[in-house]
Design goal:
Blueprint (H helix, E strand, L loop, with lengths): L1 H46 L6 H5 E3 L4 E3 L2 H9 L4 E3 L5 E4 L4 E5 L2 E3 L7 H19 L3
Antiparallel strand pairs: 1-2, 3-6, 4-5
Length: 138
C-alpha cells in the first residue's frame, strides 16, 4: 500500500512539473513572437521609402508579426507600380516637394520600381528567429 502511494505521488509530481514546463514553453514562445514582431517592424520602418514618412510611420508590430496601415500606398511601394492616371477630371493636383503643380487632373503618374521593404525586413529577421526562440525557452 505504501508503494502505491509513492507511485501516485511520483506521477502527480511528474505531471505537475511537465505542466509547469509546458506553460513556460508557451510563455517563452509568446515572448519570442512579441520580440520578433517588434524587431521586424523596426526593420521594415527603416527600409520603407521615406518621402513623407507616412508609410514608415504606419508600420507597427501586431504582436505576432508586423504590418502597415497604409495598404493602398504600401502595396505599390512593395511590389512596384506601372504608369497610371491619378486625380479626377478638373481636380487640382500638386506636390510641393517635387515642385509639381498646380495642374488639373487627371495626370499620368510615371509609376515606381518595387522597393520590397517588407520582404527585405522579413529576410533580415529570419536569421534571428531561432536564436530568439532559444533565448526565451526554459
Amino acid at each position: 500500500m505504501a508503494g502505491g502511494a509513492v507511485r501516485v505521488r511520483t506521477r502527480v509530481q511528474w505531471r505537475d512539473e511537465m505542466g509547469r514546463y509546458a506553460a513556460r514553453v508557451d510563455e517563452g514562445a509568446e515572448e519570442a513572437q512579441r520580440e520578433l514582431s517588434e524587431i521586424g517592424a523596426t526593420l521594415a520602418r527603416a527600409l520603407a521609402p521615406r518621402r513623407r514618412g507616412i508609410l514608415a510611420g504606419s508600420i507597427q508590430s501586431t504582436g505576432h508579426g508586423f504590418a502597415t496601415g497604409a495598404l493602398t500606398y504600401a502595396l505599390p511601394q512593395e511590389e512596384g507600380a506601372g504608369a497610371h492616371p491619378i486625380g479626377e477630371p478638373g481636380q487640382v493636383l500638386g506636390n510641393r516637394e517635387d515642385e509639381f503643380g498646380p495642374v488639373r487632373g487627371p495626370v499620368l503618374h510615371p509609376g515606381n520600381p518595387a522597393v520590397h521593404f517588407m520582404r527585405n525586413a522579413l529576410r533580415l529577421l529570419k536569421p534571428r528567429i531561432m536564436p530568439t526562440i532559444r533565448s526565451n525557452m526554459p
